[in-house]
Amino acid sequence: MAGVLTTCPYCGCGCNMELQVAGGRVVGTSPVGGHPVAQGSLCVKGWNAHEFVHSPDRLTGPLLRRDGRLAPVSWEEAMDFAAGGLKRIAAEHGPDALAFFSSAKCTNEENFLMMKLARAAFRTNNVDHCARLCHASSVVGLAETFGSGAMTNSIEELAQADCIFVIGSNTTEQHPQVAARILESVRRGGALIVADPRSIRLTRFAKVHLRHRPGSDVALVNSMMHVILAEKLENREFISARTENFEALARTVRAYPPRRGEAISGVPADLIAQAARTYARAKAAAIVYSMGITQHVTGVDNVRSLANLAMLTGNVGRPSTGVNPLRGQNNVQGACDVGALANVYSGYQSVTDPAARQKFARAWGTDELPGQVGLTVVEAINAAADGRVKAMYIMGENPMMSDPDIRKAEKGLRSLELLIVQDIFLTETARLADVVLAGASFAEKDGTFTNTERRVQRVRKAIEPVGQARADWEILCDFARRVGCEQMSYAGPEDVFNELAELTPSYHGMSYARLEPWGLLWPCPEPGHPGTPYLHQGTFARGKGHFSPAEHRPPDEIPDEHYDLILTTGRIYFHWHTGSMTRRTNPLNRESPEAFVEISPEDAAARGIRPGGRARVSTRRGAIELTARVTEDVAPGVLFIPFHFHEAAANLLTNPALDPEAKIPEYKACAARVEACP
């Protein structure tokens, strides 16, 4: 039995693992010693990462819709139909009648090729991926305040922090190896502050638990900063030397004394003050957050507030400090880095910058590239429903589970003249497609992923793709050739990586050889550069850090007489994202086989809902029925539903209202009601 070193396909931790191969099949997964994140261990999803590879549900060849049904066809027929259809629609309606969805589950190389296909072959910037639905707020908020939207420090450094402030992240369930470093800090005597509407596992180890109402993050953090300034706990030297716009911040937070913070957030004023003192007095304090911060109509303001808190206390640009957004998928960071976004090329080079357009046009042998920002994921779906987008090419994304307001997503997808879906399973989205292209799993191809701490790592092919399935990079190159784009001919993924590294300043010093064995953290600007564990040392990426004060704004929907509760959504330990992989993994599905809603004992009793009974949850967009878990882990007035289960899809309920700047939907707070099923 052979072992092949590769990178886990699940969360943004980026653990390395060894796939055990026998008889051309992946038969097991093992941890590897020495890896800086995994450190010889894996979470339950990592231990079972091989299980879905040989699922009987795998797509083993292309499908084409005939007489209303998807039927197997040859690659030649499927590709000719798909490529010919896109060319025809672009010619008839213009390039912006097309939209391309890339994937945080695919490699850097494949995401680079998808954005190149959209821009070089079809002359549209309508290319985006699910980062828009999870960390678009981080990219906007941290780029404005620090100059870079990335996690500032490495995962390893958390173990040495004197204080860690976790807000909007159920870290033990979503990023277990990051949680392990947090708990290592606690064992060393570090102080842990947890802000979360639910009692999560980390709260057992917290010095302070700030149980705030969903959507009150800005008020909570502003009140913490009010205390820090009132008690003169700020780092005046850092503020003076390395930041700008401090007086504007001071004026704003002056209006948020802890009593006002309590009135808005529900957190007692004395706990707000205690958290503020604990964080400000630490020698090295780190902030860790995830989608509980970003998935709001105020997501960018939430991120700005955390950046303000870090700068106010000088906790940026040093080891074991910083502002650390945890990316939810294995390659969200990388897909953003290589330009699978509507507004930037790789390395966050703006499509509206003539010099950047000229640089990429020259490299790709094209005369001109489009200069207007394209449509984001949600905007493209809405444009399809309105008839403005006529065709979509979706690689490795499942908007029929991941988009807010799934009914509208379905309307948009069904309105298309042509829907091409490239995936490894017949997902809820693929079932609506006109053409389905069978891609390869992580075990069946080479490439790179970039984890949440900016570590670029190798993905290594362990087996051949199942049946007639093909690696996604091969499909994209074949597709480009059929539409006349000769600039997408490569010997393999390494060849693609060399091109993206040449065009991407933060990756410029990387090569496959240099990524052995555990990868490099960008920025790595030149060959021989060792990579960068933490950012903003000495100076911020933008020069001086910019204080960006934010005022509290309520969620788009607040409870009323008809919808009297707040619904929030998230992940659980045993499942991941839309469930397409974990729910085809028997050990994981056995542990958590069905959808549920968490409800407080008080709210359950008032509505006659029994533990384990069936409940109906409804919002202004729809209703679902699922099992009730009556628990004190949620506060009265709050409901929690995980979004992994298609049979009771939480995103039938969620609010598609967008942050005006990042265009991210408000998954984390909407008005809802619940009743016992008859």
Give a description of the structure.
The chain is α/β, with parallel strands linked by helices. It is built from 22 helices and 28 strands. Strand 1 (2-7) and strand 2 (16-22) form a beta hairpin. It is globular and about 70 Å long.
List the helices and strands and how they pair.
Elements: E1 2-7, E2 16-22, E3 25-31, H1 44-47, E4 63-66, E5 69-72, H2 75-93, E6 98-101, H3 108-121, E7 127-128, H4 136-145, E8 163-167, H5 171-174, H6 176-187, E9 191-195, E10 208-210, H7 217-230, H8 236-242, E11 243-244, H9 246-253, H10 258-265, H11 269-281, E12 285-289, H12 291-294, H13 299-312, E13 323-325, H14 332-337, H15 354-364, H16 377-385, E14 391-395, H17 399-402, H18 406-414, E15 418-423, E16 435-438, E17 447-450, E18 455-459, H19 472-482, H20 493-503, E19 520-521, E20 545-546, E21 565-570, H21 586-591, E22 596-599, H22 601-607, E23 614-619, E24 622-630, E25 638-642, E26 655-658, E27 665-666, E28 670-676
Parallel strand pairs: 6-7, 6-14, 8-9, 8-12, 9-10, 11-20, 12-13, 14-15, 15-16, 21-25, 22-24
Antiparallel strand pairs: 1-2, 2-3, 4-5, 4-16, 17-18, 18-19, 21-28, 22-25, 23-24, 23-28, 26-27
Helix pairs in contact: 2-19, 3-19, 3-20, 4-13, 7-10, 7-11, 7-13, 10-11, 16-18
Query: Unreliable stretches, pLDDT < 50, 5 or more residues?
Result: none
Number of helices: 22
Q: Indicate the overall shape.
A: globular
* Average pLDDT for all residues: 96
The CATH first-level class of the largest domain comes to Alpha Beta
Percent helix range = 25-40%
Number of domains: 4
Find the structural class using helix and strand composition: alpha/beta
Note the beta-strand portion: 15-25%
Number of strands: 28
